[in-house]
Amino acid sequence: MSNQKLRLAAFPLLLAATGVAYPLRAQTGGESAAQTYDIVIANGRVMDPESGRDEVANVGINGRSIATISTAKLKGRRTIDAANLVVAPGFVDLHAHGQNPKGEYYQVLDGVTTAIDAEGGAMPIAPFLAALSGKALVNFGATASHQCARREVISNAPCSGHGAINPDAGSRDRRAYTAPATPEQQRAIVAALDREVAAGALGYGLGIEYTPGAGRSEIYDIFKAAAATRAPVFVHVRSRPLDPAPACRSRWRRK
């Protein structure tokens, strides 16, 4: 996802999460036991989904990288005793609206090291990223907000950042959410989303549960744009019966 500019905000040292940006590299014994590491997380249950590792071990960290994982005792300038705790890669939350210091604090306590608003998104993306850069406790990012693109084009009322909890999101002009877009407006909506993806958004965020005015052709064109830019689309689907197929099928066919 490097070309989508996922921002590395920090490397939080968690007993439940050692950071998704740094894969666990398994090493055992040998010279690792003789080294002195910056930090040692000792006696924790080390779990690595990628390799299948699941055992009590010690993690040696130098700088911002995991240097070794060993069943041998390790020496560290600082040692954290993780006995009876799990040491694992951090959790990735793709549906995070609380991208603020308090929300991130609680996410860190839950072992989240990457929090992305993938459905609501943000617009414009640049100030959203700038506001968190160097301050966030976790890795962060957002998609380009379809709701905000509709507001910009249909209501001439641009958002000012985080789409789903944007202070402007409760616009009194409901046309942005309920009115069908003309062909010209649809092209402008797609252009606005493309602009934000080029500026660093992680993809296209469609909260179509909240934009009943968005028709099939509009949504189809957004998927076409995503295919052209090779960016993902994250969708908050509309209310549906127990069988989700009808809600999905309505997006598959063009009018």
TrEMBL record:
It comes from the Eukaryota. This is Amidohydrolase family domain-containing protein. One of its GO terms (molecular function) is hydrolase activity, acting on carbon-nitrogen (but not peptide) bonds. Transmembrane segments: none annotated. Residues 1-21 form the signal peptide. The keyword Zinc does not apply. Keywords: Signal. InterPro entries: Deacetylase_Atu3266-like (IPR020043), Metal-dep_hydrolase_composite (IPR011059), Metal_Hydrolase (IPR032466).
